[in-house]
Each structure stands twice: as C-alpha cells, then as structure tokens.
Write a structure and sequence with these properties.
By secondary structure, the protein is an alpha/beta fold. It is built from 30 helices and 23 strands.
C-alpha cells in the first residue's frame, strides 16, 4: 500500500481507518475526492471484493474520474465491479432489478424535466385549469419537493397541512394534478428523477427482504458531498448501512448551498447523533488557493453559527489581496470587469480560459456578455443548452425511447407526426382522450384501433396503424442489435435523416451534423461496452443519457474562452482568476434570503463557495445603481464585502461608509473605469513609410509581416488561425497591444518594396 505515502497525515488517517461510521469534513480544496478514492483503493488492497463496496457521488464525471484513479492504484480488474455512480444511476439500477415488485417493467424509461413539464401542462389542460395560476414549472417544483420528502400523491392529498397551504396560495388543485401525474407516469411505465429515490424508499419499506438483500450485499458505503443530500437520499443511506455500520461520508458543511433543491445541512451537522460511535476526520489544508484567499474565506464563514468547527489553512504563496471594483451602474460594472480581464490577458499573458465571471442570478449575464463582445473577448456560458436538449436530438431519442418502451407517452406524442405523416393535433388529442377514459396508455389505444373505429375515419386509422407498425419494426430489433446498429436503423428508417437533409441552410446542416454526432456517441458506447463485457444494448445507452447531471452535460470544449456562470453552477470547479459580480444587498444576499438566520447563513456559504473557486486572484465588483423591472434603482454593496477581514482586501479603509460599512481609497470616475489600461511601449516594431503603403488581400498576410491598420496603426503579425472566410490574424500593435483581426473585414496595408 505504497500509495498511502502520497497522502498528508490527516488524509492518511481518514483513508486507513475503514471500519465503523466516519465523517470526513473536507474544507475547500483539501482533497476530499482524493481521500474517497484512496479509501476505496485501500479497501480493495485489503481484499474486500469490489462488489461489496457502494460509492455514491453527485456527478457521473466524478465517478468516472474516481474509477480511473482507483484502477491506476490497484489495477482495473480489482476495481471493475465497484458499485460506483450517482445516487440516481445506482438506484435506477436496483429498481430495474426489482421493478416488477413495484408494478413497473425493467424497461421503464426516465422522464427529464422537460418531459415532466409537458405532461403537467397536458394535465392542467385536461383538468381545465388556468395555466397562469398553475404554472407547470411551479407545480413540478411542488411535486418534486413532496417526493424528496417521501410524500406520495396519496399522502399529499390526505395532508390537511399541505392542502390548506395550497388553498391559501389559491392553488387547491395541486393534489389532483399530482395524482393524475403519477397515474399517467404509471400508465407510461416511466419514472421521473425524483421517483428513482422515492420508489427506492418504497421498495425498501414495503419489501424488507429486498432491503435485507442489499444490506448484506454492501459491506462498505461511501458518500461524496454528503451536505448536499436530501431527506430521501439520507434515508436510503441510513437503511443500507444499518447492518454493517461501515459508512463513510465526506463533505463540507460550509459548502451546503442547495436547500432550494431539498438538500438538508442537518444531515451532516447531525451525523454524530445518527451514529454515536462515529469517528471525525478533518481535512483542513487547502491546496488550491493562495493564503490570502483562504484566510479571507475563513473570515467570512466564521460569521455562521451553524457549522462544524474547523480552521482551513494554506501553505501556498500569500498572493494578491482581493480587489474591490466599484461602479456607478451595472453597465459600467460590466465595462470595468472586462477591462480588467483584458489587461490581465494581454499584459500578463494569461489565457482567457483562466477567467471565470460568477454571478448570483442568470439575468446578470446579459450586460456582462455585451461588455465582453464589445471588447472582442471570447466567452462561453456554462450551463447553456445541453447537446441532449437540442430539438433534433430529443426527436431521435424519442424514437429510441418508444422502441424500448411503447407506453412512453411523452416520447410518443413528440414523434407521432414527425416527420410529418398526416396525424394532426386533433387526432392525437382524440387518441389521448380515449386513453384517459379507459385509463390505459396511448399505445394500448393504437393497438386496439379496431375497437374504436367510430372515432376516426379510414385514412386516419391507416396512418395511425402505419405509425404503430413502424415502431413495432424497431421494437423487434432492440433486444437483438447492439445500440449503434439499431440507432442507425431507426435514424434512417424513421425519416429523420431524410427530413433534415432537405434543409441546406447552415442551421439545417448543423442539425444533421448533431444527429451524426449522437450516432458517433452511440458507436463509442457500443464499442466500449463490448470490450468491457458490459451491456451494449439501446436501453443501457438511454439510461446513461437520462441520468446525465448538469456538469456531465457540458460539452468538452477546450476553447480559450472566459467562463460565465452562476455561483451555484461553479461549485466543484476552480479557476486561476475569479470575478464575483453584482455583490450588492438584495441581490447577494438575495432579498428573500435575509428574513431568517438559516437562509442568510446559506447565502454566506454561497459567498464562501465563490471565493474558494479561485486559485490566484479574486476581484469583487458592485454597482451603485442597477436596472430592475425597466427602471434604474439605487443599490448598495453587500454586507458580505464588509465582513471580509480588511487585511485581505485592497482599498479597504474603515467601516465608516453609512450605506455599506466601508469605503474605498480610489474615487470612482463618472467617465472612465478605475482600472488603468496604460500599455507598455513596444519598441522592436519598425515604423512603416506611410507614403509607400499598399493594401493587401487576406491571403497575402503572413506571420512576421509588419503591417499598418487604419485604426490601430503599425503592428507585427504574430500568428494566423482559421481558414477561408474565417481566417484571423493575431497582431501586436505598437500602441494598441495585441489585437485579433478577422481578415475578410480588416483593411491591411504593408510597405511597397
């Protein structure tokens, strides 16, 4: 076990003590994933069979990275049979084994959020309710919260406390919507994300022999990010660990920021009450950030009362103090932030991908995006539309889902008339009404059209039958072919590829390329599964897609771009330079979060998370006014800024500012940003004789060439990138510094010989 020597003393102690309940409190950047990984490797090296170990994470990405590292430490054969993955992926696996006991088939499909919203929208329409009162998003959130607290539709309707609260909110029909929603999911043989946990709890509650089987199976249970678990997850873990008590949870109460999703900080704070014989291990050395950032973060989080005491420290360099940028308006704030990034990128030779701009709400990104575009700074929005949420991808996935589970109502409605086959909305609504009347799935109606012929004319029945026969043709091959072969067959036979091929616009070509990219992903899945002896069928691929998390859905672009994201989305990530924007009262902390001490403490934890994403530099910005609801309103800096120990803040004088508790040395200008953008002189580029200049074509521009630009003056071509009309030149100008020019638009001159 030489790998134990790679750990510090505290990490090694947490890894070596494998018996009994253990709570590992891991400060930001202290190597918690490393401890989990090495603890599992240690168990395997002691001869514990991999299939006896259950490891639960919050992202598939984290599980994959841990599995890879464990294989490197103890060999891939030892690590191959680990039960490692997200809560949802592990428990969906158990549910497929035990589905029949709960009245599902093992081929049940999983609704994503959009599927659930669409179904709720249809139910609201069927019940003739006002969709402005019963907004699908709000209703789904209410149902989700109920499920996370193990409240079934029946229990919801029987709870006078809940129904009274709904009536007071003028939404007395939510219980009825919830009942119909669950009934329709049952008919469709589908579960939503929350069902995967709710139904696991029901399985363990109603079938003690099943619970006993899995209690005996898992001798060791490890849980990552324990502070983010909800009540449903907490109860499953508690039940599974009752026999062996070898439960190790890793987390940081100071990073509990997901209460709006049902996460309960009490789960980690009360661990000692649940397991009185537990051992506590603290990881307090931060390997990520400078000493200044770590100490500043400590000074903030120490203001919270509900926490497990710890003292995070860093032995890295002291680093720069935290810079505060003050702007007159939100627009000027965007200007200042982008200027600061431009300065650092150009004069300190930092890459744009080294920068992250964080904000409290997505609405703040617009002004920041505009400012970045004006500066020609490339950026990407983290958490934008996932590849798997694009229309053409969802269309083809719906065919796959229906081939696997013909009762999947949302998949069927999505593609029954795509590509167009003459089955209109009126026909679909009529089929759906018949299904509701008889409490069966739409597919069951399609299979029994001869019994409802009075409802449709002969051409319509022919079209519906042709659609059913097409799906049955796919269904017959699902169990025989591997995922890739059946996927290609469905893509071609369904008509989707032909339909997209008709559109020759750039958007149409892009959609067809996306379909090909999906097929490439399925081919990779099939080949990998075949090599590893795993399930290579289409249902296994669909399950992997359905269980993708937010971070897993991000495309792996390694482009050199500034990252924009909410602070919630940034958790678990790190960047050399972090800009925290809009740090103002009523925005951060959010206005609704200042009414209770617990809500304010969560906002403070969120601030702590933002600070600790940074490795080298933190810049905090706020504005004195901001556009809200179409008008300019005055704002004041957040209390969190004044809570940072002034020793770690650049420009802090004393808490005398009446609005914020502090003021800055640097006066704010009404015309210019407070950042100096003085450019270092460039002396090694010879001046050109302007009387001898001639314009040249884009194809004539070469690296090393001295050129003249009407706006930027004389410069030297450093590099060329791109092809054809997208060809760009990176140029170092004598007075303006580095610029990137799109050559098809730029007027470039050089000196005649």
């Amino acid at each position: 076990m030489d790998f134990l020597n790679e750990l510090n003393a505290n990490q090694r102690e947490a890894v070596a003590n494998t018996e009994g309940p253990a709570l590992v409190i891991a400060g930001a950047g202290s190597g918690k994933t490393r401890v989990l990984t090495y603890r599992i490797a240690n168990l395997l090296s002691k001869g514990i069979p991999a299939y006896k170990i259950l490891a639960l994470t919050f992202t598939n990405k984290a599980a994959r990275e841990m599995q890879k590292r464990i294989s490197q430490l103890v060999g891939s054969e030892n690590a191959a049979n680990l039960w490692m993955g997200t809560f949802h992926s592990i428990f969906s696996k158990i549910l497929r084994f035990e589905a029949e006991k709960l009245g599902y088939t093992s081929n049940f499909t999983i609704y994503d959020t959009q599927d659930s919203k669409n179904l709720i929208k249809a139910i609201i329409k069927d019940l003739k309710l006002d969709d402005k009162t019963y907004k699908p998003n709000d209703v789904l959130g209410r149902i989700s919260m109920a499920k996370n607290n193990l409240i079934t539709a029946q229990a919801y309707a029987q709870s006078s406390r809940i129904t009274t609260a709904d009536a007071a909110a003028r939404k007395p029909m939510i219980a009825e919507i919830y009942k119909h929603y669950q009934m329709r999911c049952r008919q469709s043989d589908t579960m939503d994300f929350d069902d995967l946990l709710l139904q696991t709890n029901i399985l363990f509650r109603d079938f003690p022999e099943i619970l006993d089987k899995y209690q005996q199976k898992f001798n060791y249970i490890l849980v990552d990010e324990y502070q983010d678990t909800n009540y449903s997850q907490y109860l499953i873990i508690k039940k599974l660990s009752e026999r062996h008590h070898n439960l190790c949870v890793v987390g940081d109460d100071a990073q509990s920021i997901y209460s709006f999703r049902g996460a309960r900080i009490e789960n980690i704070l009360n661990f000692r009450n649940d397991y009185p014989d537990y051992r506590l291990f603290k990881l307090e050395q931060n390997y990520r950030s400078t000493t200044t950032i770590v100490e500043a973060a400590n000074s903030i989080i120490n203001k919270n009362k509900e926490q497990i005491p710890k003292r995070v420290f860093s032995e890295n360099e002291e680093g720069e103090k935290i810079k505060i940028l003050r702007a007159l308006s939100d627009k000027e704030e965007g200007f200042q932030v982008t200027n600061e990034i431009f300065k650092l990128a150009n004069y300190e030779q930092q890459e744009y991908c080294d920068f992250a701009i964080l904000y409290r709400t997505n609405a703040q990104s617009r002004i920041l995006e505009e400012a970045l575009r004006k500066r020609n700074i490339p950026y990407k929005i983290y958490g934008g539309q996932s590849f798997y949420q694009r229309k053409e991808i969802k269309d083809l996935l719906a065919y796959f889902r229906l081939a696997v589970n013909q009762n999947d109502e949302e998949a069927l409605k999505r593609i029954i008339n795509y590509p167009k086959r003459g089955i209109g909305d009126t026909t679909v609504d009529r089929v759906r009404e018949i299904a509701l009347q008889h409490r069966v799935s739409i597919w069951t109606v399609l299979c029994n059209l001869d019994k409802v012929t009075g409802n449709f004319n002969a051409p319509t029945i022919t079209k519906l039958n042709n659609f059913r026969l097409l799906i049955e043709k796919f269904t017959g091959r699902v169990s025989e072919d591997n995922a890739y072969d059946i996927a290609v067959y469905i893509a071609q036979t369904s008509g989707i590829v032909d339909d997209l091929s008709v559109d020759s616009t750039p958007e149409g070509i892009s959609r067809k390329e996306n379909i090909q990219e999906l097929l490439n992903a399925i081919k990779d899945f099939s080949e990998t599964a075949y090599k590893e002896g795993a399930n290579e069928k289409l249902p296994a691929f669909l399950e992997g897609v359905a269980l993708l998390t937010d971070q897993d859905s991000e495309k792996a672009e390694d482009n050199n771009k500034v990252t924009l994201m909410t602070i919630h989305a940034a958790k678990g990530l790190e960047f050399p330079n972090v800009f925290m924007t809009g740090i103002e009262e009523e925005l951060f902390p959010a206005q609704q979060s200042t009414s209770t001490p617990s809500a304010l403490e969560e906002e403070r934890r969120l601030f702590y998370v933002a600070l600790t994403r940074a490795e080298k530099r933190v810049v905090i910005s706020y504005a004195n006014s901001r556009y809200r609801n179409g008008q300019i309103v005055p704002t004041r800096p957040s209390r969190f800024i004044s809570e940072i120990d002034p020793h770690y803040v650049e420009g802090f004088i004393s808490p005398r500012n009446e609005s914020s508790g502090f003021r800055l040395k640097t006066p704010v200008s009404t015309h210019k940003p407070t950042i100096s953008l003085a450019k270092p002189p460039v002396t090694d580029i010879p001046e050109l004789d302007r009387s001898r200049l001639k314009q040249i074509e884009p194809g004539q521009v070469l690296p090393g060439m001295i050129i003249f630009h009407p706006t930027f003056g004389t410069g030297k071509v450093i590099a060329l990138e791109g092809l054809g009309v997208n060809k760009k030149a990176k140029v170092l100008f004598t007075k303006e510094g580095n610029k990137t020019l799109l050559l098809k638009f730029a007027k470039i001159y050089t000196q005649e010989d």
